[in-house]
């Protein structure tokens, strides 16, 4: 067993950590306050080739392994949690397009995603169908060489900044999961309306709802085969859930490090706060939990790189890591006292931001269902 990162991975992590601290962290709160997408930071990440990590080299990407992509996402989240969505979304969308899209779609979109010129989001969730993705009702009906899409998609990260969306629809409404198909839909099409959300956190990822009213999409924008969409996204979730977990851990780790420095300098009863075991012991406990969770994540990404089963492990990461991270950040907020409740420190924003990913890509309850399914077998599913 070898738990070391390669020299190349270590070097990349060092460069990205420096970038996150010097470039991303100083403006982390700015984008939250303005509720704006960080185009400026997105372009700088593209200059460092961080947006094409999992895109094939022939389309301008780095074709990096999954472990490397996870490492980069974790480091970016230490600086600006919302900017780490650049790795998350481009890896998720890039994986789906690279494996299943037509050559025309790959050429037109993957190359520009890698350079940061184009942003593509995922439109799966609907108002009545979140965790039960097979229950979506958005329709795609084939008419000649086109498909006509109608429906509503909700909770879409990056929507208001995106140029296109991978939209999951029903091409066979009687077939549940086997009737779901995916399409690359440019968002400048007639019949598209976008509505923004007044979110609690992660305001910079500009989430929203997408309304499709007789939107015409050419048949070559079908991703994979008709009825293959559900399998595509489920396989991709086995990867994105681990990236999410590492993003949360990165934000929590940075918060603990900042809190350690704070309690060294903050005095109470004539002593630094750090001398009180009621302060230092909980921080050390969180560091231990984060370290254990981190290695579960990297083992899961290693399993994916090796082509080995990892659905159960990915669900474990997605359930455990956001929960640990939110609670650790909350403890740090309390240790900061009333300052932690202000915007003087980034701890309150990190807590708001990370909470969102206790929901995204499947709630903790759904992850436990997945783990149970993998352990007990499908015959013991509650549905």
How would you briefly describe this protein structure?
The protein has 383 residues and is α+β, with helices and mostly antiparallel strands.
Supply database-style keywords.
383 residues, alpha+beta, Butyryl-Coa Dehydrogenase, subunit A, domain 1, Butyryl-CoA Dehydrogenase, subunit A, domain 2, Butyryl-CoA Dehydrogenase, subunit A, domain 3, four-stranded mixed β-sheet, four-stranded antiparallel β-sheet, 49% helix, globular
How many helices? The count is 11
User: What percentage of residues falls in helices of 4 or more residues?
Assistant: 40-55%
CATH class of the largest domain: Mainly Alpha
Instruction: Give the end-to-end Cα distance, rounded to a whole number of Å.
Output: 39 Å
Give me the CATH fold name of the largest domain.
Answer: Butyryl-CoA Dehydrogenase, subunit A, domain 3
Strand order of the largest sheet: 1-4-5-8
Count of folded domains: 3
Q: What about the largest sheet?
A: 4 strands, mixed
What amount of the residues lies in strands? Answer: 5-15%
Succession of helices and strands = HHHHHHEEEEEEEEHEEHHHH
What name goes with the CATH superfamily of the largest domain?
Butyryl-CoA Dehydrogenase, subunit A, domain 3
Structural class: alpha+beta
CATH architecture of the largest domain: Up-down Bundle
Low-confidence stretches: none
Q: How big is the Rg? A: 21 Å
* Arithmetic mean of pLDDT: 95
Overall morphology:
globular
Tally of DSSP β-strands: 10
Describe the fold and architecture.
The chain has 383 residues and is of the alpha+beta class. The chain folds into three domains: 7-118, Orthogonal Bundle (Butyryl-Coa Dehydrogenase, subunit A, domain 1); 121-227, Butyryl-CoA Dehydrogenase, subunit A, domain 2 (Beta Barrel), CATH 2.40.110; 230-380, Butyryl-CoA Dehydrogenase, subunit A, domain 3 (Up-down Bundle), CATH 1.20.140.10. It is 49% helix and 15% strand. The chain contains eleven helices and ten strands. The chain has helices spanning 7-24, 28-34, 39-47, 66-79, 85-100, 103-114, 229-265, 277-305, 311-335, 347-355, 364-376; strands at residues 120-123, 139-143, 146-156, 164-170, 180-186, 192-196, 208-218, 222-223, 267-268, 271-272. Strands 1-4-5-8 form a four-stranded mixed beta sheet. Strands 2-3-7-6 form a four-stranded antiparallel beta sheet, with no helix packed on it. Helix 1 packs parallel to helix 4 (66-79). The chain is globular, with a radius of gyration of 21 Å.
